[in-house]
Amino acid sequence: RQVIYKSIRKAKKKPPSPDEWPYFKRHAFEDEKEYRVILECREKEVQSESIDLDLTTISEIVINPWLHQSAYPPVEKAIRRCIHDYESIKIRQTTLLQNPIWEQIGLQGT
Question: What is the C-alpha separation between 40 and 28, in angstroms, rounded?
Fold first, then answer.
């Protein structure tokens, strides 16, 4: 499902429903044009599930900034094995939380 982008002001006026929260993001990130896939299974515990996906529609995979840096190489390697025919897809871990300028901006707002 495509992510819903809203400004904070609009979100305050009309908060997302509980079903929308997993697909909700601030308007500032709209240029990402993000999609999210969530699998729900009430019958059994599911550790993984395969889905058909046209990999030519993906230009980049960005890994969560909270994944410990030491865990990134094996995660990247596992993803690369799955998409081995699509070497043009960039894989990287976001450095958002490690950016000193971003940290300064955040501290100014506190």
Answer: 28
* Residue closest to 1 by CA, chosen among 22, 27, 28: 22
Q: Select, from the ranges 43-52, 71-80, 94-103, the one with the highest average predicted confidence (pLDDT).
A: 71-80
Tell me, what DSSP letter sits at residue 66?
Answer: T
Cross-strand bridge partners of residue 60: 90
CA–CA separation, 73 vs 63, rounded Å? 11
Q: For residues 87 and 79, is the Cβ–Cβ distance under 8 A?
A: no
Is 105 exposed, middle or buried, given 0-12, 13-18 or 19+ CB atoms closer than 10 A? exposed
Sign, CA dihedral 11-15-17-22, equals positive
What's the pLDDT tens digit per position in 58-85?
888 988 777 888 999 999 999 999 898 9
The confidence score (pLDDT) of residue 106 equals 52
pTM: 0.58
Has residue 48 got a pLDDT over 60? yes
